[in-house]
Amino acid sequence: MNDKDALIQPDRGQDAITIRLADKDGFDDFLKSLSAGQRSAIAGQKFDGDGNTHAIVPNGDGWFAAGGVADRQSLSSWCLARLAETLPAGTYRLEGTEPGAAMFGWIVAQYRFDRYRSKDDEPGPRILLTTDAKGIAAVTAEAEATMLVRDLVNTPAEDMGPERLEGEAEVLARAFKADLRVTKGDMLEREFPMVHMVGRAAARSHAPRMIELEWGDPKNPRLAIVGKGVCFDSGGLDIKGASGMLLMKKDMGGAAHALALARLVMESALPVRLHLLVPAVENAVSGNSFRPGDVLKSRKGISVEIGNTDAEGRLILADALARAGEDDPDFTIDFATLTGAARVALGPDLPAMFARTDETASALLSAGEAADDPCWRLPLHDAYREWLKSDIADMGNAHANSFAGSTVAALFLDKFVAEGADWAHFDTFAWRPAAKPGRPKGGEALGLRAAWRMLQARYG
Hints:
alpha/beta, Leucine Aminopeptidase, subunit E, domain 1, Aminopeptidase, Leucyl aminopeptidase, manganese, manganese ion binding, protease, hydrolase
């Protein structure tokens, strides 16, 4: 968006409607600063300073907005989001404080996915002013990356197949003068055999492919970002039930995160040599679907017996991680909507994070807390590796018991990451099942800002 249309703009003294913040602890003092008529207006709207509430307060010939926040002295990313969703269109200024981290929530709260809706009249933008003009670009970049994830995940599979993910990578390559390589057809079968096998049952228009983008000075540390791009997951021959398939357009959520993170890296000119890898497939059902009991060869040379065709995401990620490791990256990070077990353990809000080193895990956890994008570390517990043993192949893709599903999936991936390499894995939901302020129901970036802040601290 251009400066004129930006939802956060520099405060140059322009006319603006005032927002006065209040919290529970200071609510009595807030009331004392008001006139009797204003207090009556507050009472009539049942405003008590609670977070995510507001009131419209008359003020002479005009009005101001009273906004409730959890802590007026420490604004979070989401504390102004409800105001950004509900206030009338206009330009606003906080009284006596700067929005800081809340600028992010102000922007993404005004996100709408309306591609398939008749164009109803939408309220105009709510613009927030800040004296921190230098901070606008950074927060806008994070917000736009988040909204990119939402857009990609919300788009139905018919319009978000492997070729569309390739198109998104092409947009990035053109914008940032990056090199793009797409492997498909016979070459895909030779170079990335598990990506080919998982995706070969799909219609030709949704044919599988490996998408690779490289950018940056080769002399800089090499950063590999990998994203699972299963554009729709029927479960294959181990087919899902109807309810299980309903949200499977979001199974490319890992790819959406990877594309958005790569955009942040390039947009900020982070001093790295970026290698983005997106294995893009549709796990469909047809006469040439891969089968339970099949043994697949992998790029790394490890043979994999298929115990469950619905554990396909780890197969395509394995080939991508093997490819990433061939160039000896300084750090590899992947995103995937990989297991229901992670959601059972942590619910929809917290992505499960796995890392080989405590230092990397601590950096991601700290970055997530600072960015209001928390994640939770789960273990790469060596004792569970035996659950991936196979009687006829080097390993299986699924274990027979119902224990520790997200850990076992991560241990499968670990087998394909270069030995001794620094690697982190996000098992993210990429979806919000119920709306919260600034976070509508639907596709969501979970773990994106945590990873981005960690990368900035590491390389910036």
